[in-house]
Amino acid sequence: MIETAFTPWASLSGGVLIGVAATLLMLVLGRVMGATGVLAGLVQPSSGQDFAWRAALLAGMVTGPAVVWLITGQMPAVQVPVSTVALVIGGLIVGIGVTFGSGCTSGHGVCGMARLSPRSIVATLTFMAATFATVFVVRHVIAG
Amino acid sequence: MKLIATYLISLIFGVGIALSGMANPAKVLNFFDIAGSWDPSLIFVMGGALITTFIGYKLVFGRAAPLLEEKFSLPTSSAIDARLVGGSAVFGIGWGIAGFCPGGALPALGTGRWEVFAFTAALIAGIFLAKFIQSAATRRSASAT
């Protein structure tokens, strides 16, 4: 595993920006900011217009790190402490889970919880608990 | 106009994710590792995002309609069922194995790291697989009735 520094201020300001973006998307387009929905709609668009707005959404997200680099002079850190096999298996499992669960951290965890949607609160508590349990098992039961 | 607005708004999202540490699997996994190398930073991400969105939504929903659309498109389902809970639990397991979630991975693609592309390709394959299973199940129940 890789040790990481506690970054309360960067994390808080990043979180506030995520909230600002979610609020603006609702104010301007009346839509929920969910990464699962963006991806699912991109791979199976319902119309050309639908594809265009999701592509714009994806383009904005992807250019985020470049803007951070322009401002701070540093690319945001991406440290991968797991094997490629774990990345691919994890990715597959995440894809299946978010499709059946209709959302992920951004859709349920931020937008849904902020609307006090009982469905999103249950989903968020469930995936957080499952992630805590999985990391414990992977790092302290299997590897330990 | 709509597309430019969408791009700029999700750019703010991408910067927020990059700044927050959500795009860094080491940081995400350390948050979930209370028994090991715990890094509580993600509490600040979720706290900041939730409080801001909560207040923001309260203000936005005071309006009759969004600025550039005729109405708000909000999720309509309210069912708390096995599909929601099971799917969310499965997502949590995958998140714990890989350290990336979709919201963290999409902005992280912009760093150009191959690991992010490997994860995202698997993620898209998983979405296709789940949609295939869903439509097969729908067809079967349709032919059964």
Order of helices and strands of chain B: HHHHHH
Radius of gyration of chain B: 19 Å
Note the beta-strand portion of chain A: under 5%
Q: Class by helix and strand content of chain B?
A: mainly alpha
Biggest sheet descriptor of chain B: none
The amount of helix of chain A comes to over 70%
Cα separation of the termini of chain B: 47 Å
Low-confidence runs of chain B:
none
Oligomer: heterodimer
- Termini separation of chain A (Å)? 12 Å
Shape of chain B: globular
Shape of chain A: globular
Radius of gyration of chain A: 17 Å
Order of helices and strands of chain A: HHHHHH
How many E strands of chain B? 0
Proportion of β residues of chain B?
under 5%
Notes on the protein architecture:
The complex is a heterodimer of chains A (144) and B (145). Chain A has 144 residues and is an all-alpha fold. Chain A contains six helices and no strands. The longest helix of chain A has 25 residues, at 48-72. With 145 residues, chain B is mostly helical. Chain B has one domain (1-143). Chain B has helices at residues 2-20, 25-32, 41-60, 82-98, 102-108, 114-144. In chain B, helix 5 crosses helix 6. At the A-B interface, helix 1, helix 2, helix 3, helix 4 and helix 5 of A face helix 1, helix 2, helix 3, helix 4 and helix 5 of B.
Please outline the helices and strands.
The complex is a heterodimer of chains A (144) and B (145).
Chain A: H1 8-29, H2 35-43, H3 48-72, H4 84-101, H5 105-114, H6 118-142
Helix pairs in contact in A: 2-3, 5-6
Chain B: H1 2-20, H2 25-32, H3 41-60, H4 82-98, H5 102-108, H6 114-144
Helix pairs in contact in B: 1-5, 5-6
